[in-house]
Design brief:
single chain
């Protein structure tokens, strides 16, 4: 546990000292403010469904910019060997870096809590849907980060890691569109893989066990494969 905390603190400090983290935060919050304003003053809809749906797409572009350096950056800097020769296991390294990235995005998400406050001040939105939407959004963020970490473990290049994670996340997001061109078992399978399909129910205020299992499975599988990839690389 101490090793995970140590990695967590080191990585979180590195994130907040990185200019790209502030650019990512500014982009996410700037676009969130735009989506909220359009939704409220133009569409005159007192909910956050549109905000969270659009942010789900925005994160496909922004999460890889942060996660690309988590492992590939260590390889490029030549510090991975040093980290793994210290009394830290590969799994502890993975968990520490993952939690640091997750906390950073939770920190950004906390700023959006002003939007429900504005809605409640102006009208009477459904608090249940808002709460469930936040739960779905946090699960989506956690899944995106785990996929980005996995892609970062597959290469020593940060650029390649970023492009790869963007491609994988985009494919998982739009796979539901691909299912419309297929039928039968294949269509159901492709739709099951779609992040947007599982995410949309949360934005409707629906918590389904299958959606929870989906996101938790994405996270656990991605973190496990990340640890395996780094272990194999260090042993070869």
């Amino acid at each position: 546990m101490n090793a995970i905390i140590s990695i967590f603190k080191k990585e979180l400090k590195s994130i907040f000292y990185s200019p790209i983290a502030y650019v990512i935060g500014a982009v996410i919050l700037g676009l969130a403010g735009y989506f909220f304003s359009v939704n409220l003053f133009v569409s005159r809809i007192a909910d956050l469904t549109g905000v969270f749906m659009n942010l789900g797409v925005v994160l496909i572009f922004t999460v890889p910019a942060l996660t690309m350096k988590l492992l590939a950056g260590e390889e490029q800097a030549g510090t991975m060997e040093f980290l793994l020769t210290s009394p830290i296991s590969v799994f502890q390294l993975i968990i520490g870096k993952y939690l640091a990235s997750l906390v950073f995005f939770l920190f950004i998400t906390a700023f959006t809590l002003i939007y429900p406050g504005i809605l409640f001040a102006l009208s009477a939105p459904d608090s249940g849907i808002i709460i469930v939407s936040y739960i779905g959004f946090l699960l989506l963020v956690a899944s995106y980060i785990s996929v980005g970490l996995l892609c970062s473990s597959l290469t020593t290049s940060q650029v390649v890691a970023s492009i790869l994670s963007f491609g994988v996340l985009l494919l998982l997001w739009v796979s539901s569109w691909l299912s419309s061109n297929t039928s039968g078992i294949l269509s159901s399978f492709i739709k099951t893989l779609s992040m947007s399909e599982h995410y949309m129910d949360f934005l409707r205020g629906i918590i389904d066990t299958s959606h929870l299992v989906y996101f938790v499975s994405i996270i656990l599988v991605s973190l496990t494969l990340s640890a395996i990839n780094i272990s194999r690389r260090t042993c070869s």
